[in-house]
Amino acid sequence: MNFESEILLIERILNEHYGDLKWWPARTIDEVLIGAILTQNTSWTNVEKAMENLRIGKVSDLNNISKSDISTLSQLIRPSGFYNQKSRRLLKIAIKISTEFGNLKSLKKKGLPFCEKYLSEFEGIGKETLDSILLYALVFPKFVIDKYTLRFFERLGIWSRSMGNSMLEMIPEILENNVLRLKNFHATIVEISKNYCRAKPICPECLMNKNCDYYREIMFP
């Protein structure tokens, strides 16, 4: 079975089990970007606490964050950890986007290549965070390559680190550049990775074990 067929099979199995997870949980596209910064090095539970603080403080959008003072912002996002660093980064991002474009919707109109380059130049927006913003906030056909997807595909045996990421970057095309499919494919991989394909995996109960090289190796060494 080739890589394209493997991806389509995995998508079907995960969709049949999990359905539409409707990820990313946010009320606005600004909240998606903010959440993508806050989720670095912390759990989503902590991000939700920080986001609720921002909503209560009426600074859960880039325009209002750009007018906020750093000390207030730091305290509001404190539950997310590394709050001094994250508040500085958020403030810089909010000021620049609000000043140059007004809002994220106007930035999106510049197209994927421009947005990808523009956002990548911000401190705190690495490849994983960038792809999350492009897919979930700006709704461009990108696939998020993170620790979950890499571990999952490597254990299944359809990808190895020696291959680099070029093969994984073909996934949007395989899924017909369909943003809804790309969102849910990534979301279901994260879900199975949290439930079963953990750092210490729970292989016998995993719905993918019949398709998994790692499981076969530990069961039939």
Would you mind describing this structure in some detail?
With 221 residues, the chain is mostly helical. It folds into 2 domains: 3-22 and 144-219, Endonuclease Iii, domain 2; 29-137, Hypothetical protein, domain 2 (Endonuclease III, domain 1, Orthogonal Bundle). The protein contains 13 helices and no strands. Helix 2 packs across helix 3 (44-56), helix 5 packs across helix 6 (83-100) and helix 8 crosses helix 9 (127-137). The longest helix is centred in the middle third of the chain and has 18 residues, at 83-100. It is globular. The model has no long low-confidence stretch (mean pLDDT 96). One of its GO terms (biological process) is base-excision repair. InterPro entries: DNA_glycosylase, HhH-GPD_domain, HhH_base_excis_C. This is Endonuclease III. Keywords: 4Fe-4S, Endonuclease, Hydrolase, Iron, Iron-sulfur, Metal-binding, Nuclease. Residues 38-195 form the HhH-GPD domain.
